[in-house]
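Ticket #4471: structure output looks truncated?

Reporter: J.K.
Steps to reproduce: submitted the chain below (516 residues) through the standard prediction queue, then opened the result file.
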Amino acid sequence: MHALLKTLKRAVTLATGGGSHPSEPPMIMREEGVLVHRLPANTSGAVHFAHTITCDNIDTQKSYTVSASIYIPQGFAGKSIDLSLYGYRTVSGTPVDLNKRDAWQHVSATAEIPPHQHGLVPALTVDHDGTQPSSIYSKDWRLVSAPRRRSFKHVTCAELAAISPDARIIGDIPDVSVPVTPIRYGQTTKPDFPVVEYPPDGWTPRTMEFRDQKVYELHGAVIHGEEGIVTVGDHVLEETYLLASLDKIKLRWAGDGTASFECTEPTGIISKGSHHFSGYPGNRNYAHWMVDILPSIETPATSGDSALILPELYHHWQSATLDMVDTDHVRVLLKGEQTVRCEKLTISYMRLVDSGHWPHPSRLAVASRITAHVNPDPAARRRIYISRRDSGARRMVNEAEIIALAEEFGFEILTLTGMPIAEQIRAFAEAEIVLGSHGAGLSNVIFCRDGTIFCEMLVDGYVQWSMRRLASVLPLRYGCAIGREIGSEANQHDKQWRIDPDRVREMVQAALADIP
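Returned output as attached by the reporter:
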């Protein structure tokens, strides 16, 4: 049974006893479907209130969650209230808060159901002191199937291909070494104040290595939800959960080489497909969509009869750019926890060492295909400044000064939120210089012409070199200026910062002097 949803109509009180009871709260009793659970006097210890469901098609391969709304009057005399599936160990849930009185609270409990069970008994267990009679109230009882936690051996794609007949290599991606582009303008040497770099040593010459990148074919693979985690038999592929939201899927590692997470049974079967996911941010963050997911459609083995398996499309720019890249394949979109099985799945992860998921140079043809759809003027020489005043994260407190400076040098001021995607692409494709502070919108530099100047403003507590590395692959000429954090917020993305306009001016002047 894929989902069980029951509204429980009737209470069977398993406690006995008599005595007078306090009057029922009139406002509570006027609500529809409220159940009264009376606790007698002169009875101490556990008192059970249960609802019985008998059902021949309970799926014992799943967990079940019971939930209800509970009302505890101010005068309740008891030590604890527990919700459970009676007789089964609760593995997770939202407990009853005894301190919350005269108000409804939503509570839940999840338990794993062993084989050969045909009845589930959701129950409230009250530890009553027995000195005075009292009552509690409940409503909105529900019982639903829940994801079941399963353990898998975690392996890489290469390791699975070496040990299992269900995985094989079907293609090779050429090995490439790409020098990280030097900082030509602005902060060309490491500043004399502390900075936190990702990855470290950004002022030291380095090379990005694209090595041993393969295309794999997996048989009987299961793709779990919009995170795109892939399992084959009792193995889970490490590459597919590296960017997953671990809190959301409740993934846990064990010291014995296994990982477990909550998963549901497949709701559909695909005969042939290709995997295009990038964990939790893949279908929410603009940069990850542009540089992780869209370029993956360039996988050499993505054949015409293969479905594109993708996360749910939440934004207009996703469907618009996907239509620019591909109109030939059937699309299968996974939403939430939806799970499918693919009999023959193509997958390729092209990670850079120490840098995250940035596209192999061979995949950049996707950007050229997208750019061709917007017909940029090849003779245009635009100067564009990308503002983040539309973002609440990492707010630059003196951006008005920087905008005035940019306008002084002839920059157009662009705010990308709400700007049609075709106009965004055209602006970057026609730019001779791009100036902006670090953020997802700067991933549009993938549409820039070779040799375009890219000047990035960064903050000392979050010198994230990902956009510089993207500029290296394209390649672009790069400059940066470093600002300073203001405040002590724990979350990096909540911190405000300020940048010295003179540092930005020096960077821009040096960059403009480098334009023929």
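Triage note (M.O.): checked the attachment and the full token line is present. The longest helix spans residues 501-513.
Status: closed, working as intended.
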